[in-house]
Specification:
Elements: E1 5-7, H1 12-21, E2 25-28, H2 34-39, E3 47-50, E4 60-62, E5 66-70, H3 75-80, H4 82-87, H5 89-96, H6 101-106, H7 109-115, H8 122-128, E6 132-135, E7 139-141, H9 142-145, E8 146-148, E9 151-152, E10 160-166, E11 170-177, E12 184-193, E13 196-202, E14 209-210, H10 212-220, H11 245-264
Parallel strand pairs: 1-3, 2-3
Antiparallel strand pairs: 4-5, 5-10, 6-7, 6-10, 8-9, 11-12, 12-13, 13-14
C-alpha cells in the first residue's frame, strides 16, 4: 500500500473542497470497496477524505410519502429499521442480504450507490423504487444517475448526502447470490405504485437496468404468472466465471417472479 494523506472533515463543504483541491483524492464512507482496492494496489489515491465525522449524513426520516436515508447510514441500520420494514419492507430485505454482518455494519448506502458496482444490491432498489439521490449540490433522479460500469452522474466534489425513496404500494427483492462474496449474480427489485410498476435488475450486466416488458405486464396483473413467459435477451449481459449471459438472462425472470412473490407476501 502506497502512502497517502488522510483528512477527516466535520462539515460537508470542507469535504467537497478537499475533493476538488486535491487531485486523485477519494471519499471514504464505509470503505468496503475502496480499502481492499488500495491494499491490492488497484488504486493509489493521493489522499482519502473520510466522511465518518459527518453525523448529519446518518439517520432515517419519514415525511409520509417518502423515506429519506442519510448517505452514511449502514446497511444493518436500514435492515433493522422498523420504519423501513413497515413502509418499504422490500428495501429492508434488500439491505439484510448485503454481504455478511461485518459488511452490513460498516458499509453505507451512500457509498454503495456512489460506487455503482454492477453486482451491488442497492442500485436495483434505488432504480426500482425511482428514488432521488440528494447530493451536496443538487437532486438526481435514479433513472439519470447510473450511467455504466462504476460510473454515475456525480461530478467532481459532489457528495451524496441522502437518498429519498417514494413509498410504494408493494415492493420486493430477490437475488441469486455468489456463494463466496454474496454479491448478486442476478438481483431483481420490483415496486408497485399507483401509476404503474418498476422492475430493476442488478448483477446481470454492466450496471442496473429496468425491464419495460415486465413493467407493462405487472402493471396489468401484479402476479408472478404475468411475467413467467417473458424472456430476457442475453445480448449485453455479463458472462464470467460465475455464470454465462444466457444463464443470467434466465435468472432475471426467475428472480423477478420471486420478487413479486416477496412483494405480495
Amino acid at each position: 500500500m502506497k502512502p497517502f494523506a488522510y483528512h477527516q472533515p466535520s462539515e460537508i463543504p470542507d469535504a467537497a473542497k478537499l475533493l476538488i483541491s486535491i487531485e486523485d483524492s477519494k471519499l471514504v464512507a464505509g470503505g468496503m470497496t475502496l480499502i481492499p482496492t488500495i491494499k491490492q494496489r488497484l488504486a493509489s489515491p493521493v489522499a482519502l477524505v473520510d466522511l465518518s465525522k459527518l453525523g448529519s449524513l446518518k439517520g432515517i426520516t419519514d415525511d409520509g410519502a417518502s423515506i429519506t436515508i442519510g448517505a452514511m447510514t449502514p446497511h444493518a441500520v436500514v435492515a433493522a429499521s422498523k420504519l423501513v420494514q413497515t413502509k418499504i419492507p422490500g428495501l429492508a430485505a434488500l439491505a439484510s442480504m448485503i454481504g455478511d454482518p461485518a459488511v452490513r455494519n460498516r458499509g453505507t448506502i451512500g457509498g454503495s450507490v456512489a460506487n455503482n458496482d454492477p453486482a451491488a444490491d442497492y442500485p436495483a432498489g434505488v432504480l426500482g423504487l425511482g428514488a432521488t439521490i440528494v447530493s451536496s449540490t443538487r437532486e438526481i433522479a435514479a433513472d439519470k444517475f447510473f450511467l455504466g460500469l462504476f460510473e454515475t452522474a456525480l461530478e467532481v466534489g459532489e457528495i451524496i448526502t441522502a437518498i429519498r425513496f417514494p413509498v410504494p404500494l408493494k415492493a420486493g427483492y430477490s437475488k441469486f447470490k455468489a456463494p463466496a462474496s454474496r454479491y448478486a449474480l442476478v438481483g431483481v427489485f420490483v415496486a408497485k405504485f399507483a401509476d404503474g410498476v418498476r422492475v430493476a435488475v442488478t448483477g446481470a450486466g454492466p450496471g442496473a437496468f429496468r425491464v419495460p416488458p415486465m413493467e407493462v405486464a405487472l402493471s396489468e396483473n401484479f402476479d408472478p404468472s404475468a411475467i413467467a413467459a417473458i424472456k430476457i435477451d442475453n445480448d449485453g449481459l455479463t458472462s464470467d466465471i460465475h455464470a454465462e449471459a444466457d444463464y443470467r438472462a434466465h435468472l432475471v425472470t426467475v428472480m423477478a417472479k420471486r420478487a413479486v412473490d416477496a412483494a405480495l407476501s
